[in-house]
Amino acid sequence: MIRSHAMAKSKLKPSLAEIATHSGVSAATVSRILNHSGTVSRDLVERVNQSLVALGFEHVTKGYVAAICPMAGIVTPKMEGIITEAERLGYTIVILYITGSTEINQRSLQLFKILNFQAVIILTETIKPEDLRNQYQLGNVPIVVVNHRVELATVHCIDIDRVVGMYKAVKHLMSLGHRKFAYLSAPLETRVSLDRKKGIDQAMEENGLTYIFRQSDASAETGFQMTTSVMKDPGHELPTAIVTFDDQVAVGSLEALKAMGLRVPEDVSVIGFDDQFITRHTSPPLTTVHQPWVNMGKLAMAKVDSVLSGRDLHEGGLTVLECPLIVRESTGPAPKS
């Protein structure tokens, strides 16, 4: 499934001959640039684009950029940031949806054989940059990975510091007097899950504390189930603070505590991760770690433009953003008893 975002409205087109004469290149080269077909040097693309502006043609797209994301990815702030920045810079974003269906994924990715993409932004761990580059002969086309990291010198990664984000969340609870914790995790099968647990472990080790650990798929339903399991387990002291893998798990945890007649934060404090829109409207509003998703998308697109324009000669590298703690009413002082 494919979705394209055009970037501007156009006036009457000048002829290929007019553009070719003005820019000093052949009409065939102009045609390849306008249709994004075949390989043309960046210098020639820039010359033709400058001529289009001079000739009064406003619809100057710097080229197509593929954004590969999960089916739900189009509605995320990360994609919002990519599209907003692409519009500002003058690129056309083509969104390629990835689902659980191999057949659908193959159909989406076949567009690499049709369009001459100037760059690729990957927002899913399902697609491996090196496999994509090799399978579709992408050569030195810039590839930017968002929200995770790969160890490739030719791929730039935009990621967040989840370890420090979770560390700050736990330290906040400790500053409120909490010493008995539970952590409700997603399965420890991804770097995201491992990083968040690492942040908790660091805070606990510094203070000589341990915590109750549960893991399951990250959802409100499993958050409810894991919280119920923790609070009804006679084999350990009941926690006064519950740290959750993400906001969806936290929502389920809040509901479970309410169902058991426990007050948040008077009896138990709850903290999430992500700062999804719903966190402002839970009861009580959820303390959480903010992920700068919109900025991640904008930075990914800015990196693409920087490489394509020749301002940045390093296609690889890593940009790490901080995750600030957003304190709301779901966390409070540890109960005295």
What key attributes describe this structure?
six-stranded mixed sheet, seven-stranded mixed sheet, alpha/beta, 38% helix, 337 residues, elongated, Rossmann fold, 434 Repressor (Amino-terminal Domain), 11 helices
Overview of this structure, please?
The chain is an alpha/beta fold and 337 residues long. Among the domains are: 53 residues, 434 Repressor (Amino-terminal Domain); 129 residues, Response regulator (Rossmann fold, 3-Layer(aba) Sandwich). It contains 11 helices and 13 strands. The strands form 2 sheets. Strands 1-3-2-4-5-6-12 form a 7-stranded mixed sheet, with helices on both faces. Helix 1 crosses helix 2, helix 1 crosses helix 3 and helix 7 runs parallel beside helix 8. It starts with a strand and ends in an 11-residue tail after the last strand. About 2% of the residues have low confidence.
CATH superfamily of the domain at 162-290: Response regulator
* Average pLDDT, all residues: 88
Class from helix and strand fractions? alpha/beta
Distance between the termini: 56 Å
CATH architectural label of the domain at 162-290: 3-Layer(aba) Sandwich
Order of helices and strands: EHHHEHEHEHEEHEHEHEHEEHEE
The counted number of beta strands is 13
